[in-house]
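Minimal example, chain plus FE2/S2 (inorganic) cluster.
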Amino acid sequence: MCPMYSEKVMEHFRNPKNMGEIKDADGVGTVGNPTCGDLMTIYIKVKDDVITDIKFKTFGCAAAIATSSMITEIAKNKTLSEAQKITRDNVAEKLDGLPPIKMHCSNLASDALKAAINDYKKKHK
Ligand code: FES
């Protein structure tokens, strides 16, 4: 096991959940980290204010991939307002913690999800 990451992080890194793209997504959010250059896109399908499907594409470090995978699991079947409240700490906790120098990676996940929700809201006013 990698001494830096929890077993949960490694599990989501090796077998990410909901990886891919939703072609007819209702909302899409892309964010980048200017420091490391990593990039994350989240796609959502929404029905009656509930996220019914969610996928991600991430070009980034192991923590970025694991946090993307985890946030899709947390957000699926949540209402938009519940999903909007998911913080980077919620994601890190569910992964049994992240090393402090990797906490910024989980920002990408929560920011990309928020961007996708905002995109949906803009398009469906
Ligand atoms: Fe860039 Fe993790 S190092 S997101």
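The chain has a mean pLDDT of 94. The longest strand covers residues 50-59.
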